[in-house]
């Protein structure tokens, strides 16, 4: 199944780092009753993700929230420890929730897996952004080239609200 506008997100689990260590968060924990701007990246600290995609999110964070977004979330097929370090290094104002999809369960469930094994990266997520309201996809922006941020950045999603 490839996710599309109008679809409800499938039940899945993420790992989120807390003071007590990694904790499980379900799709309901993240999305139920909320308006969420979800940004997916192929890999934490990778060139395009770190230098282009993340800045586009945080430069627009205040404006996204002013437009009614309750939560900004970043998901990647990385473990909770890597996502925690990446949050520390990129999210200086604590504006986003970083979701670890270490086994790509969520990514596969929505049909967004990317086979990057040719580059030694294994299965990753395609680059996209979406607006999710109460678990239902309202806006979906899929990047055709994982090395670019042309339609999946924070500025594009903001312009669609």
Report on this structure:
By secondary structure, the chain is of the alpha/beta class. It has a single domain, classed as Glutaredoxin (3-Layer(aba) Sandwich), CATH 3.40.30.10. Helix content is 29%, strand content 30%. The chain has helices spanning 27-31, 47-58, 61-66, 80-90, 105-109, 154-160; strands spanning 13-18, 21-26, 35-41, 71-76, 96-100, 113-115, 123-125, 128-133, 136-142. The strands form three sheets. A five-stranded mixed sheet has the order 5-4-3-8-9. The protein has a two-stranded antiparallel sheet with strand order 1-2. The model has no long low-confidence stretch (mean pLDDT 95). Belongs to the peroxiredoxin family. Prx5 subfamily. InterPro entries: PRX5-like, Redoxin, Thioredoxin-like_sf, Thioredoxin_domain. This is Glutathione-dependent peroxiredoxin.
Quick structural gist:
By secondary structure, the chain is α/β, with parallel strands linked by helices.
Contiguous low-pLDDT stretches (5 residues minimum) are none
On the 0 to 100 scale, the average pLDDT is 95
CATH superfamily: Glutaredoxin
- Count helical runs: 6
Query: Largest beta sheet: what is the strand line-up?
Result: 5-4-3-8-9
Helix/strand order, N-terminal first: EEHEHHEHEHEEEEH
- Write down how many β-strands occur, each being a DSSP E stretch of 2 or more residues: 9
CATH topology: Glutaredoxin
- Name of the CATH architecture: 3-Layer(aba) Sandwich
Largest sheet: 5 strands, mixed
Shape: globular
Distance between the termini: 26 Å
Number of domains: 1
Strand content: 25-35%
- Structural class call reads alpha/beta
Assign the CATH class: Alpha Beta
Radius of gyration from CA coordinates: 14 Å
Helix content: 25-40%
